[in-house]
């Protein structure tokens, strides 16, 4: 399995490289370093959100409220910035993380304590959080000229050739790799999605793990609220509408199993990059955005089929076990003990 | 065969069987489930199929209903050999079954539930609702069930649903009706109603195969019996001429087939003391003491509340009353992690479902309940995890290409070793093994038993839940028998004998 997963990530890399090469053939300059850096920068927000989504999906849940969370938090931060320009940016970013985490915690509590299916909870909070953004702003926009220069420029600040936005995504990826593979929480994510009962018996609190997955997803959505508003230099109620589906798509394309317990950070990042490349390339070669949606959809279906075939491999393997025990008679007893 | 039969008189049916199974054998990899068994069913007669758990009753039912195909032997109906290649073929052959847990559909009407799969149709191929509801009403009337065919199933009580399941079984033209533990979910009054229906079916000349653990019911409703043990036919005949004692002896009277490697261990001081442990719905007033190095068997029929009790002890569910003392200190187990921390671990019955996270590598599965020992400030230390996994893999002779291989890639026996290894790695004081050898072959069983002795020898206390009498008799220092959620008694090894335990478990005093 792990070899197959690695294989899958290599496959994604190959597909992305092939896509870039094909687009570069039609539109020279597409594969230039500046263009690629630009694509990465453009995909940064998706990568961050997809990693939050991945934490949730690993626990057999889904968070459909990330884009609404982003919209509300982005609006709140932009309004604070407009009203109190003297508040330093660091505090605003901390506030964005905090507000996002709070909205995520609401999802998490409803799933954990009230026992409502995640898809229903987040479908509900999706509309509620957007509605809150509308109530908060009264439907008005926060424009570029109301925001402080610091607030607007920070993500664009170039550091070692890349804008700070890209570095933020890279930092989030590194932190998530450590969190997912090197901490008890990360292990609990995989265990509680892989086999909730076994996890429970091993002393892992599945409900609490899920709750914190939602908090994490919410916090990252909050951070992206600031990044989005700052990058596009405007805050209004309808920013990032439908973007939650892109985050789910990135996870699915990257091989995060919707049944929980399976998936790697590399997969989620590559899934996001794949969508990023397509989104940036199609306009370059003059294909309408509607085709872009259809192509994304097609890729998701192919990816899900691929995942399903992978799942199916996990049968009882009676024949293989039998062959093994024939090969090594001493193990006959074990082979039969299925 | 179509003689008029008064239902009230004790009547053992026609002497010529309408259905016979001859020389039926069925093997699964490593296990011979049925070995040359015979059974015959007679029109207007109830035959009770009796045997311990694992005697092969369910396999026989599955063969009769076309779900399994026998390896050898024949099924003869009215003197003609038949073959059931599928469940549908068995139904067409006139065989229908009522199972212990009925599978019905909450949102559909009673009539739809009864005819699902063979809905009456109109000329145009559409559902003939009128005919369906009328036939459903007639069927329900024929079993005295006052239920409207239009009612949604979800509005019915458990007992009423059972009647619907019976009506469903009778909605096909059946001559043989199999009832597999039909009373398991019913109250006393509902059992009486069921028996009335059985009398009615007898009166219609149907042959009934009745499977039950309860002697009271067997003697109450059946005319004939057949006893199975370890997949073989042991005896059959008329119940009126056979005493309960004779039947109990047939069920258990065996020479112990493989020597149990029970090693005598010096029994130490009390480790675990359970007093008055109760649960609002599953078990009541369980008390015992467990000593160091002791193997403590818990025996009972399926559904006696053994697993439920052990799960409460492990913190999966909360008890309503009672206390637990571990090494003289009272402990309050609110969750499995509390239990693991205190030194109590539970190896569940369904290891595939409850035991391992199949997608995860071996080493992560083994370290899972011991993460507090392999982490520092919430960060995992992989070297420690690998060291721990290597220790227990070696000790259990686990065969795998590498410890980073997902557990799902291992054979069943090796998966089980991972599950056991993961619990041993927590260095427990008490280990609860729920049906440790269920569904595994003789060779692996012996290995598990040897390992249990080894654990006891190292001073661990073992609680072994088992439905297999030879295992209980062979391995336990003491045995607690549970019946219907209550203690039926405890016995020391010296006083153990099969018949006493079966009597205690079945309530046949």
What do these coordinates show?
The complex is a heterodimer of chains A (338) and B (509). In chain A, strand 1 (158-159) and strand 2 (162-163) form a beta hairpin. Chain A is mostly helical and 338 residues long. Chain A has 15 helices and two strands. Chain A has a two-stranded antiparallel sheet with strand order 1-2. With 509 residues, chain B is of the alpha/beta class. Chain B folds into four domains: 17-94 and 175-253, P-loop containing nucleotide triphosphate hydrolases (Rossmann fold), CATH 3.40.50.300; 104-172, no CATH class; 255-343 and 428-509, Rossmann fold (3-Layer(aba) Sandwich); 353-427, no CATH class. Chain B is 32% helix and 25% strand. Chain B has helices spanning 57-64, 87-92, 110-115, 129-142, 158-170, 188-203, 215-221, 244-252, 306-313, 336-342, 351-355, 362-367, 382-395, 412-424, 442-457, 469-475, 498-506; strands at 17-28, 31-42, 45-50, 72-77, 80-82, 95-98, 176-180, 207-211, 224-229, 232-238, 270-278, 286-291, 295-299, 321-326, 329-331, 344-347, 375-376, 379-380, 430-434, 461-466, 478-483, 486-492. Chain B is globular and about 75 Å long. Residues 1-11 of chain B have low confidence and may be disordered. Classes of the chains: A mainly alpha (338), B alpha/beta (509). Chain A binds chain B through residues 1-2, 181-187, 190-191, 194-195, 197-205, 261-262, 314, 317-318, 321-322, 324-325, 331-338, and chain B through 29-31, 314, 316, 335-337, 339-341, 346, 348, 353-361, 364, 368-369, 371, 375, 378-380, 399, 404-406, 408-409, 411-414, 416, 422, 440-441, 443-444, 447. Chain B: Belongs to the ABC transporter superfamily.
